[in-house]
Amino acid sequence: MNADHHTQPQTATPQTPGLLRLVYFNAFSTGAVIMAFEMLGSRYLNPYFGSGIYTWAALISSVLAALSLGYFVGGWLGDRRPSPAILGVCIIVASAYLLCVPLIAEASFASIFKAIEDPRLGSIVAALVILFAPLMVLGFYSPFAIRLVLFDTTQSGRVSGRIYGISTFGSIFGTLFTTFYLVPTMGTRNITYLLAACAFLAGASFLLAARRR
Amino acid sequence: MWQNLRAAALALAMAAGCGTNAFAEQLERIESYYNTIFVLQQGTYITLAFGHENRTYVESQRNTADLLELPLTYTRSLTAAVAYAPQTANFLMIGMGGGSTSWYLHKHMPDANVTAVELDPDIVALAAKYYQLHQEPNFNIAEGDGRLFLMRDDTNYDVIFVDAYRGPFVPFHLLTREFYQIAKFHLAPGGVVAQNVEPSTMLFDSSHATLLSVFDTVDFIPAGGNIIAVAYDGPRRDISELTALAQARQSAFGFRYSVPEMIAARRTLAPPAEDIVPLTDDFAPVNLLNSVEVHNRKWE
Question: How many domains does the structure of chain A reveal?
């Protein structure tokens, strides 16, 4: 691939308005899923590791660690394979992991609880087990999406600003909607399945968009 | 009598107060790991209260001149559970707070092993500082989450008391079916779980339904606004059998607050309506239920 930073970045194919809208829309939905799942993480962790401030520290740091690595990898992958289909497949993989989280949590938390006596360390390990993989992959989104729709460096500020802005707005929505509506209305497992479904739809929409092109 | 009235007035003033109040002097305000704790004094009474959303909630109140007094009614009513237990070897208190009930039980039943679990290390320190609460033979203090404590513990208890509040809320993982299953696993034969519950919200019905999803029977002891739910397996204990055991315990241990009187006030309720679902680790909208007030005809 062309690694010359002085030339104008090129998308694999020029972006269409449809793809642009899809990228912005999914910035919102993946942003919402990330924070919704972080809020939900506390419901998974509390029964095994207590409801102290350290469970929140474990959750927040695990999410940030996942996103941090996701940004690096997503940026690298976007440059190597700037295709909506690749991004779509990644998001679908994340959604598949989310779908398995209720099973994974049940199977692993009891053994983490037994193996690690300190609930602070235990909650970090547990948070990493359920959160790290799917949110790392969802973290690919922003840098990858910028690479997909940016064709003119004179707009790079605006485009990346919009994607991060919309994604963060989605995160606000995900946080509040999960806390004030979903948790009081449906179970933790069902909310997890709902989030997996949202992520799946986001991923599938990129696959469809790639086929159309 | 006057002491009780004064304590009630103090509790009322603080329940309505906003961190400070006209009657009590604030000795300390501590930002702990888990709570904002106000230490309030009026005469020889010292209260530990938690701040939550611009209000304070009394968590513990003790008379420093008479540490066996239980100024708060529900802390007395909790002790009614000793009339349910066939043995009095091991007692566990989840949510020690200032330790009033656990210390009272320990001092009246010195041969029993009393363990009190408290999440907040600052509460443990304040209880030591102001109430001289300390470990001694047959009285143990454990720091940590009550559910986690039980999961690592291998003792069987005759009564597991549950009085863990953070301000107005009980942490959700201490109200679910899975929690009661863990508690039940740690009961000695004939043992009971006694929980302090709040009757004016939907959470009361949900807690009742949840207890009934794990235990065969739930009795209720009125506790001055609050209610003590006593949950156990087997058919409902006959009142005459309970009264006889209460009287035996009363004469054996000389409790200051009459256990037979509390047992005489026992209430039973029909199971909650079928649309009240038990709370589980998966679904326990505790904060929501706690805020939905119901007119509880069954109780009134």
Answer: 1
